[in-house]
Specification:
With 261 residues, the protein is α/β, with parallel strands linked by helices. The protein has nine helices and 14 strands. The termini are close together.
Length: 261
């Protein structure tokens, strides 16, 4: 079965991605209500029963809002770091929880977690080897690209990358000083510029498809995130449509877009 990526939700109003085949796969985060999650999956032509595991990056509401109800309804195990499980607390009551270790096999795929620098207890990104041998990596909530993050992202054919904000828009914008500091810190969110700077190295390592994610509504625009990334890639001598594909995940997948590997 050919693997597919379905970006269900992205951004401060909720985050969730389905990866796998049409009949078996996993959710990376479930940051909207269970009903909204079901609707998004069905728009992508997926039965919620295809979900065989929910992998949680961290405990912030925009990543876990629907986890408990969805997991309980369909009897799905939830995988997260020990710190994240502690941080979720009552949000995971009456749900089968499993602490993430080095790697885990679910839905015929190998899922490897790796630590990311973010202002929560123990956030992670994920590198996944699909049933047909493709490599996928997701890192959406992180303030900087550490050596460990770099190591886990390099060489994956498919990558979901944070391009959260434009630095100047944050500095000039309406956020209070403490929130600006949080966003811009090394444990906050990745800027367009920091994201773009890393993309040529990823492309040269074998990443062919980039999906920019977690784009801020207040401090960014999809067009600006894409333009910054595209400039960095083309300046490095790479050609769109030949060397790479570049997309931006919207807040909601209205038309049921599935991206085949």
């Amino acid at each position: 079965c050919m693997a597919r990526l379905c970006p269900l939700f992205s951004g401060s109003t909720g985050n969730s991605y389905y990866i796998g085949s049409r009949t078996a796969g996993v959710l990376l985060d479930a940051g909207r209500s269970a009903r909204q999650m079901e609707g998004a999956l069905r728009r992508c032509g997926l039965d919620p029963l295809a979900v065989q595991g929910i992998f949680v990056t961290h405990e912030h509401r925009d990543h876990i809002a629907g986890v408990r109800v969805f997991a309980k309804k369909y009897g799905i195990p939830v995988f997260a770091s020990a710190g994240t499980l502690t941080g979720c607390g009552a949000d995971l009551e009456q749900v089968e929880c499993r602490v993430l270790g080095e790697a885990v096999e679910v839905a015929g795929m190998q899922v490897i977690p790796f630590p990311t620098p973010h202002d929560c207890r123990e956030s992670v990104g994920f590198r996944i080897r699909t049933a047909d041998g493709r490599e996928f990596a997701l890192a959406t909530d992180l303030g900087r690209v550490t050596d460990c993050v770099r190591e886990h992202l390099l060489g994956a054919e498919w990558g979901v990358r944070a391009a959260n904000h434009d630095r100047e828009m944050v500095l000039q914008g309406p956020y209070p000083a403490y929130l600006k500091h949080r966003v811009l810190s090394g444990r906050g969110h990745l800027s367009n510029g920091d994201c773009a700077q890393f993309l040529p190295e990823l492309a040269r390592s074998g990443t062919r498809r980039f999906l920019l994610a977690h784009v801020s509504r207040e401090n960014n625009t999809p067009a600006l995130a894409r333009e910054t990334a595209l400039d960095a890639l083309t300046e490095a001598g790479l050609e769109e449509g030949v060397d790479f594909w570049l997309g931006v995940a919207g807040p909601e997948n209205q038309d049921g877009t599935s991206i085949l590997f």
